[in-house]
Every structure is written in structure tokens, then in C-alpha cells.
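Margin note from the TA: students keep mixing up input and output lines. Inputs are the sequences; the output is the structure of the whole complex. Example:
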Amino acid sequence: MQVDRVYEGRILSLDLMDVEMENGVRAAREIVRHAGAVAVLARTPDGRYALVRQYRKAVERDMLEVVAGILEPNEEPEHAARREIREETGHHVRTLKKLGTIYPSPGYTDERIHLFFAELESEAGASDPDHDEHLELVLMSRDEIEEGLRKGEIQDGKTLAAWLLAEK
Amino acid sequence: MQVDRVYEGRILSLDLMDVEMENGVRAAREIVRHAGAVAVLARTPDGRYALVRQYRKAVERDMLEVVAGILEPNEEPEHAARREIREETGHHVRTLKKLGTIYPSPGYTDERIHLFFAELESEAGASDPDHDEHLELVLMSRDEIEEGLRKGEIQDGKTLAAWLLAEK
């Protein structure tokens, strides 16, 4: 199997692979390599959910998403989840529970997202986003999220997945 | 804003962009361009769901996913949904309903997935997958899917999203 790295970058790399399938057919695959990420459905003591709204250049629009971020080298997902909660909401974490793992687009990327559910402490300090992020914290009730899903105002894949698994 | 196309391929391209954010900070963005896709939660007349199992080279494992595929140039999502159902299940479509749209990974790709729910006709013909796919059709009950979600046997993001929206 031939692998050709055509790009190596900051948050992703791109490999071209020539693969042979079970049925013997040879096929080319373009594969995006990604460090992986965490996403956290975070609930405040008053029962609201802490989402973040931010402009996403890739899709050229604002997106409403659960707290999330990319894993740092050798970082444990739980550590990354606590770090992202602190950076994006300013809240301390009371409890953190693993919900599951998803592959957002397994046809072409190895990105894996570790999903968590967090209960937050009430007092919020200052959030501390990465210097190249510009985030707005949005506290939503359960009904507001349900309505946002029905109306298509929440369209981020990992956010839907976390909401589904938190119910299971 | 400077855009540099570093790769142009079969199912995706890669752009490097130098963007200025609302707060004035300049940041580099690596953005994967994708044609977009459809995904269909398809139910047979006996109440089972038609999922497909296939080996995904990007994640180096078998994945259990709803029927799905990439949009062809200028193809309407509903047309692509009907085409993928025919190719991957061999069934005819009785009804097709739009569930919504998700962005699987808006931090770095413009990929948009149009989600549908389909009621299938009972008689199945031969499926007709793309020559570089090798798919196994898996009929699952509602309880089996719920169990697969809880146990982490279903980890494909678009499949979780379609399941969530089909309930709304």
C-alpha cells in the first residue's frame, strides 16, 4: 500500500493512499489526519446548558455548538474536556462523565471526537479562549435546545450526537 | 484574505486561508472543501432499519452507518438520497422526508450532510454499490439500534444525528 503525504499542517494533514479492498478492487483514498477532539455537553446548576456561538470560517456562518476543542499532543481526553470547559465557560467542573466516541466523517478523516457530559459549579470566572477564537457563551434551557434542533438552528454534528447520548 | 489551494482531489480539496477575526486577530485556517453528502435513515415495512456495515480505511475499522453518499456535481440532495438508497439497499422508496442538515466538523471542513428519513417498499432488488465500495446491508430493530448506541457499536456521527432528528 502506497501512502503519499501531500500536506502536513497545524491542525490536520492529508494523505493519499492506494488501497486494495476485500473484493480485490484497488481504490484511491484521500484521508485527512486529525489529532482528535473532545466535546462536552455542560449543564449549570440551574439546569441550563452552556453552548458556544462562534463564526466558523469553513462554513462561513455562526454555529451554535457544545464546548469543544482539539486534543493537545499526548493529552488525555478527560484532561482536554476539563481544559476546554475552563477556557470556554470559566466554570469549574463538579462532575464529568464520558458519553461515548464518534467519528464525524469516517469516509475521509480519522478524526475521533470524545463526548462528555459535565455538571458545572455555579460560580463562573472569566473564560479564557484561545487567542484565535472569538466565542460567545449561550445558556439554553432544555426546551430551547429541543426547539433549536427542530428548527435547524443547531446543526453541528457533535452537538446532536452529545445530546442524543446524554439521553441514553 | 489570502487563499492558497494546496491540494485539489477527487472527493476533497484543501485550502489554506489567512483570516481576520471580529476581534482583529489574524489567524491561519486549514479548510477541507467537500462536495457535501446525503445520509438516509431507511425503514423497511416490517419496522426494521437498513444500515450498512463497511470497512472505513480512514479509521481502520468497520463502521455501522445509515445509507449515505457524496453529492454528484449539481445533484439535488433528494435525488442523491434516492440514488444511494437504490445503490446500497436495492429497495424502492415509498416516502422520503427531509430531517435536517448537519455540519460534521465545522472547525475545518465545509462538508454539509443532508439528512433524510425514508420508508422503503418491501421488495428488494439487487443492490448496486459503487465499484470501490464493499457494503454489507444490516437490518436492525429499533431496540438493536438503541443498544448499539448505548454500547458504542454505532459511532458514526451522521447516524447519531439522523436517529436524533427522526425522533423530533
